[in-house]
Amino acid sequence: MSWLADTLTSSIGRKLIMSLTGLFLIVFLVVHLSGNFQLLANDGGESFNAYTKFMTTNPLIATISYGLYFFILLHIIMSIVLYRRNRSARPITYKKYDGSANSSWASRNMGILGTVILIFLVIHLRNFWYEMKFGSLPLDEFGNKDLYLIVSQAFSDVWYVALYVVCMIGLAFHLSHGFASAFASLGVSHNKYTPFIKKFGIAFAIIIPLGFAAIPVIMFINSLG
Predict the structure, then answer these.
(1) What is the pLDDT of residue 97?
(2) Least CB-packed of 25, 56, 71, 159 within 10 Å?
(3) What are the TM regions of this chain, as residue ranges (predicted)?
(4) Other CB atoms closer than 10 Å to residue 141's CB: what's the count?
């Protein structure tokens, strides 16, 4: 097990873990967004409730979910460790050199962006995941827990929708740097492929958060009518 200890204690190993967990979470975002689109089905929540029942009762999905929780926690821990080590390695702020000239705003503020996303996750999990797993939700006409009722109530609150959208903007900036950075840390660097990875990463960082943000906005507008 010495190789594992070496990986967890080396800077390269930590960056490798950050990259792998980050890419796993990127795949999860795509799957999660595709499921969330069920909220927009004009069927009173039937499709979404059936989807959530499948995702919480299927043994394979349940196993993957535990892996997801572990990877989220590991990603957070590694980010904190790397941030602290980078700070301690550069204790003096040099006035003659402005590192921002060679880096994006997102790359210089990944800690802040990550904190915004973490706060959002805590609120999001408490309001929806916790209620689905442990709350006393009513059942819909098909006998499924009516999570759609809770979601639609939350997305009829303008302040919750505003918070959701702001956090998705934070996610967009986080992904705009993290996507390409993950591949770079894995050694995927080539004059032919790297430009495509960066462009695809920017597109991904726009489309996925935009999709997440659009759902509560649309549901809020529908609730007004």
Answers:
(1) 46
(2) 159
(3) 20-40, 60-83, 110-129, 158-188, 200-221
(4) 9
Question: What's the pLDDT tens digit per position in 109-130?
Answer: 888 888 899 999 999 999 998 9
Please give the pLDDT value at position 1. Answer: 55
19, 181 in Cβ contact below 8 A? yes
Six token digits for residue 127: 């309001």
Neighbouring CB atoms inside 10 A of 104's CB total 12
Closest CA to 139 of 154, 126, 150: 150
- Any bridge partners for residue 145, and if so which? 139
> Mean per-residue pLDDT for 140-146?
92
Alpha-carbon Rg for the chain in angstroms: 20
Q: How confident is the model at residue 6 (pLDDT cuts 50, 70, 90)?
A: low
> Which of 113, 120, 23, 11 minimizes the C-alpha distance to 71?
23
Cα 201 from Cα 180, distance rounded (Å): 6
Three-state secondary structure readout of 176-222: HHHHHHHHHHCCCCCCCCHHHHHHHHHHHHHHHHHHHHHHHHHHHHH
Instruction: Catalogue all structural domains in the chain, each as residue range(s) with its CATH number.
Output: 9-85+103-224 (1.20.1300.10)
Examine the pLDDT at 42 and tell me if it is beyond 50. Answer: yes
